[in-house]
Amino acid sequence: MCGIIGYTGTKRDVVKVLINGLKRLEYRGYDSCGSAVLNCEGKIELDRVKGRVDLLVQRVLEKNYKNVSCGIAHTRWATHGIPAEENAHPHTDCRNEIVVVHNGIIENYLELKTELNKHDFKSETDTEVIPHLIEELINQNLRKEVIIKSEFLQPVFFKAFIDVVSKLKGSFALAVMWSKVPGVILAARRFSPLVIGVGEEEFFVSSDVAGFLEYTKKTYFVDDDEIVFLDPKNIAFFDINGKKKNKEISLISWDIKMAEKGGYRHFMIKEIFEQDIGFENTIMRRVLPVDSNLFERETGISDNDLKSFSHIHFVGCGTAYHACLCGKYLFESFGIAADADLASEFPYRQNVLDKNALVCVITQSGETADTLEAVRIAKRNGNKIFAIVNVVGSTVSREANWVLYTHCGPEIAVASTKAFTSQLAALYVLLLHIAYKRDKLLITKAREYAKELIEIPKVIRKIFKSEEYIKKIVDDVSDKNDFLYTARGINYPIALEGALKLKEISYLHAEGYAAGEMKHGPIAIINEGMPVVAISLSTSDLELMRSNIEEVKARGAKVIALCDDVSSKYVRADWKIIVPKVSEWFSPVTSVIPLQIFAYYVAFKKGLDIDKPRNLAKSVTVK
Ligand code: F6R
């Protein structure tokens, strides 16, 4: 939710750095955007637009700003105040001298606003209290100085910023500039992501590393309640009381090419076709019993920890929650008790949460507000947290006891695809370790599964070949407005995921239902010609699925059956997408990919903005 980018340095064109950063962060929010640059004479140039970054780029480039010393910019996903130019960031104080970009929600903004009744507010946002509060405190402090020398200004700005940060309640990542101190950016965070990029006599501040990855891989991850001072030559970190802190720099392994489209029309389709690699990189050298050392070294989890928990409790949101549901089916099929909860519903379960349960959170970004809250609730309860995360250094990865990274590279499209299959890959790795260590799996069987798991990337490549056939199905059904997805057992979460993919990028009505539930209500909505996507692989419940398909066909549905080469002989359907046959517990990987491709081409045919669907943003960092 919302992307922040800031730059101070003399090496580069500040405006270009901001524009490039905004383009890379646009997936975080895209209803309005803006930038503020400060020239060496101390003049702030502010530009804001309702709409996409391209609009802002046109405006800023026409103005051809010269002698710029530093700048901050923002792409917005509206919370307080409609998408409009006046609500776009940066926000300013009364005299347009202090500029602020913010990601998060200031919960006490109304209370703070009442202290500022002499100030001139121009927007409906919660953010705008921040520049006015800084202005207020600077004015109070400067009045105390008889002669205002320029060397006072920097400490006065810093002190005012720290005091304001301590007054804020809620969540924030902030970057702030004051026209009187060119070159200086102050930043802070609480519960919203913020990272610093380090170059030679230049610094970047951003919501995530994608904002500056083309310039540097050297990164500092900002912690909660940490204040950062930046000018072209200096960087310093402080706690909320102004005490200096030492921090360690990290090196990011992602490459900028990973965050580019590389010839594809959309990030989503590129990411769909990267799933073989993402899966392979996630299982590589981690699969017990073939090669287990890396898993233990990376996660640091001991055999005792793998053996001693009472049950495993999966928690996540959206697509990651669907991975959690698959985890529940997988672990239970090996006799390991498991629960799966939506992170937003997890707080309601805390009274019955067994502190001996291993809480396994699954998240691509590692910044989802509800997932993060679940981590904190579980930790307070005494639970240990195992996190499956994609973004290195993200908040969840830093708060969990153990982390298993999915190595699928940056996921830019708002609709999650490769993150999901790499989450499944991570679940298989974890399951093999836990089941083997807990004597739920004999070594011979474990070897068999490991062997098959290692072959899955090849299977994924075969599934990619169904793209052309899926496009033909799309041609036939793209005039339909309602879709039903149905499956049983471990593929039931994939029915939910298939429906989610379709609705989020094509805005069509799609529902996922457990096939056994159809007769308990949903079958009533079937009418002549309604497309029903039925996952009917050769799993233990094929016979039941076959009957469910007959039942919807008898009521006029047009069935798109997702079969494997064996089950396709048993199922009657209008279209059959055929994938290679794999063991039942690997089947979610084979069933989800055609459904992602299907959703992509439906949205493509409708000419929609696939990578940035309306009303959505990539990381949901507010509750
Ligand atoms: C759907 C989608 C979302 C995310 C959800 C969790 O395509 O992308 O449902 O899966 O917002 O995000 P993470 O995994 O970052 O916690």
Provide structural commentary.
The chain is an alpha/beta fold and 623 residues long. The chain has 3 domains: 3-253, Aminohydrolase, N-terminal nucleophile (Ntn) domain (Glutamine Phosphoribosylpyrophosphate, subunit 1, domain 1, 4-Layer Sandwich); 261-441, Glucose-6-phosphate isomerase like protein, domain 1 (Rossmann fold); 461-618, 3-Layer(aba) Sandwich (Rossmann fold). It has 18 helices and 25 strands. The model has no long low-confidence stretch (mean pLDDT 94). The structure holds fructose -6-phosphate (F6R). Fructose -6-phosphate binds at residues 317-320, 363-365, 368, 371, 415-416, 500, 504, 619-620.
Give the helix level as a range of percent.
25-40%
CATH topology of the largest domain: Glutamine Phosphoribosylpyrophosphate, subunit 1, domain 1
Number of discrete helical segments: 18
**CATH architectural name of the largest domain:** 4-Layer Sandwich
CATH superfamily of the largest domain: Aminohydrolase, N-terminal nucleophile (Ntn) domain
Shape: globular
Measured distance between first and last alpha carbons: 11 Å
Mean pLDDT: 94
Bound molecules: fructose -6-phosphate
Name of the level-1 CATH class of the largest domain: Alpha Beta
Global structural class: alpha/beta
> Uncertain spans, ≥5 residues at pLDDT below 50?
none
Task: State which percent range the strand residues make up.
Answer: 15-25%
Rg, alpha carbons: 26 Å
